[in-house]
Amino acid sequence: MRMSKMYLHTLREVPSEAEVPSHQLLLRAGMIKKLASGVYGYMPLGHRVLRKIEQIIREEMDAKGAQELLMSAIQPAELWKESGRWYDFGPEMFRLKDRNGREFCLGPTHEEVFTEIVRNELKSYKELPVNLYQIQTKYRDEKRPRFGLMRGREFIMKDAYSFDRDWEGLDKSYRDMYDAYSRIFTRCGLEFRAVEADTGAMGGSDSHEFTALSDYGEGVIAYCESCDFAATVEKAPCMLDLPPQDTEEKDLEEIHTPQAGTIEELTSFLNIPAHQTAKTLLFKVRDKIVAAVLRGDRELNETKLLNVLKVPEHELEFASAEDILKYTGAAVGFAGPVGLKGIQMIVDEEIPHMKNIVVGANKTDYHLLNVNYGRDFRADQIADLKQIQEGDRCPQCSAPVKLARGIEVGQIFKLGTKYSQAMGATYMDENIQEQPIVMGCYGIGVSRTMAAVIEQHHDEDGIIWPLSVAPYHVIITIVNVADEKQHALGEKIYQELLKQNVEVLLDDRKERAGVKFKDADLLGIPIRITVGKKASEGVVEYKLRKEKEKKELSYEEAVESIIQLIRDAEVFGR
Ligand code: 9G3
């Protein structure tokens, strides 16, 4: 492609709304254009990268016997009413009506659609297993779209659905997808970890999340360096880890603690460690008040609370100050577990192991000393509610766990029969018995993967594309197009590379050399050939974007090096 003809508009300045490197660079390199909040278009250069990532996905999915199809993005509400999910998703679902007033949604995912297709056609165990996938735009009206392609309201997903006769078959399909994902993300040049994830509202049993490590990622994973434990913090189980406790239970005592409404104020006022206190967090769930009680030095993991309550995320909200006053009789910061009425109470599993706890007295500016679970209060449920923290003991081997931020680029789920049962997708087994199909679902954020690759491959000058997903393999920069020796040699190399099916950009623009070099670095094309003063000797400069070093080569050697490097890269990841 000649850059003098290319539709490409790079930006010198960083757009103010872009806070993370990938968002800044995608905009500056003219690869995406924002159309609305969380809605982006892909310009020619960006679209080439998208296609490369999709191609890698197709190759690895097809290698596992998955079959690509393409479903509609618009989905009839009836299917979601059958599966019972139409009312599960609030404002996050884009809903619309057609001219006859029929309800539809813009598909945020396709479990219902794929189940509908299969239930009418897959009849016998002889036809199983099947794995169907698509690469398609998804729509989710995110509350806070941000970071460009990382959290958009329209995004490109590869979503696959496996259909097996039993759980053993699902285990095989799941393992195949796990392996395909590892190969896909490796070939895309991502440093990632596959971690145990929460199945959330999806039901089913196991789930893994493929997280590309990045300081700008919204996800946090916990992992152990001494064993293979790795999980999202939403999923990671916490070990019981208490300091030595008093042996006997002391008498209850009310104490005046003016303005000590936070754990910090309370512990400094009473001069006690936070692990001797417990906080009582009040929530509103479907017009009921729920109290979660956990040690003062612990953070609540809302996903674990949701799983105990068995409600979808958007139905959990913090209780208001007036609700807190109404139900505890106290201002915010003085709620405690003793004497609470008409409230569902869940305590973290450490609470019953603690002795003589300091808690809010349900009386403004007062706390209670020496509160003991069992004697002074009891809960409706006892569960692990804690968010795992750096240094907590690994649930598998007790070594201290580490935390890392990352970008969720893929997630795979064992769904089981949740959808096939709800929608009557069954097959006839050998004994002419009707059985529910056992399903799995597998997603990759294609556009998000593109952003993740940039997060892991960039420097202060721009993107550094891995060869496998680069929009072009080579850029030939003619320093001075008015010099016909340089122009001729540039053209010659360009034609030679085209002939050998190398994806090559020729920067033949009438621009100053400095602008051309800056653009070449910004666009992140892996190999740069500079045709300058030594063109008359047939000598060019050869430089890899990911290295500092430059080499002067004859143009024949340059072409040879390029072909060799690309051939090696093609072998990479097969
Ligand atoms: C909705 C809305 C948002 C959603 C969902 C449904 C996430 C929803 C979970 C999944 C599970 C898997 C197939 C590919 C891999 C992920 N956000 N999920 O179901 F209506 Cl508005 O999408 N689906």
Report on this structure.
It is a single chain. 26% of the residues lie in helices and 28% in strands. It is globular. It is built from 13 helices and 31 strands. The strands form eight sheets. Strands 3, 7, 8, 9, 10, 11, 12, 21 and 24 form a nine-stranded mixed beta sheet that branches. A five-stranded mixed beta sheet has the order 16-14-15-17-20, sandwiched between helices. The chain is of the alpha+beta class and 574 residues long. It folds into three domains: 47-71 and 109-236 and 403-455, BirA Bifunctional Protein, domain 2, CATH 3.30.930; 253-383, YbaK/aminoacyl-tRNA synthetase-associated domain (YbaK protein, Alpha-Beta Complex), CATH 3.90.960; 472-569, 3-Layer(aba) Sandwich (Rossmann fold). The protein binds ligand 9G3.
Properties at a glance:
BirA Bifunctional Protein, domain 2, binds ligand 9G3, nine-stranded mixed β-sheet, alpha+beta, YbaK protein
Bound molecules: ligand 9G3
Per CATH, the superfamily of the largest domain is: Bira Bifunctional Protein, Domain 2
Which fold name corresponds to the CATH topology of the largest domain? BirA Bifunctional Protein, domain 2
Structural class: alpha+beta
CATH class annotation of the largest domain: Alpha Beta
Strand content: 25-35%
CATH architecture level-2 label of the largest domain:
2-Layer Sandwich
Count of discrete structural domains = 3
The average pLDDT value, as a whole number, equals 95
> How many helix segments?
13
What is the chains' assembly state?
single chain
Output the radius of gyration.
Answer: 29 Å
The percent of residues in helical segments reads: 25-40%
Which stretches are poorly predicted, pLDDT < 50 over at least 5 residues? none
Shape designation = globular
